[in-house]
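Input record (one chain):
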Amino acid sequence: MGKKDKKGDTSDGSSEEEYVVEKVLDKRTVKGKVQYLLKWKGYKEEESTWEPVENLDCEELIKTFEDNRKEKEAKAKKPEDRGKKRVRESSEETNTSSRKGRGTSVSSADDHKETKRERKEEKTKSGFDKGLKAEKIIGASDATGDLMFLIKWADSDEAELVPAKVANVKCPQQVIAFYEERLTWHTPTESE
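The corresponding structure, as predicted from the sequence alone:
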């Protein structure tokens, strides 16, 4: 479970160092390519790096990360379903709840939750929410059950999956252009 990377090649080319992935922290798409933010074993979290999925050899950690992410998204959609099977979230949340039991002031715990919520909202904001303009739709997917467009943002190398319902309202001309590029006409032959 790691990523091999050549560091400090010797003249015979036999020196190859293997870095071990400790944890997958985040995911993003750049120019249509998926990248994961990796925490390396034996390194500080500040030294985490974004790596393209094709360079990775840590399928188990990626699967765990994706499963946790899907579960968190499902919980976000249904907040009243909290309880039965609760996956252990970040250690910060666990510490906050245990501190409450020991008499920590409620206001400091609330402040902590608010800052965490603000960070989460910042991450979940789409490019439209951040004021970015769609340059082009470069792909589409319905893997989540809803039609999503992969939108390339103007003045940025970033691309992001956006629900089609949002794209239809926010950038209808790009949606039309996307469909027009893929439109094919079937002209019947004389025998038909």
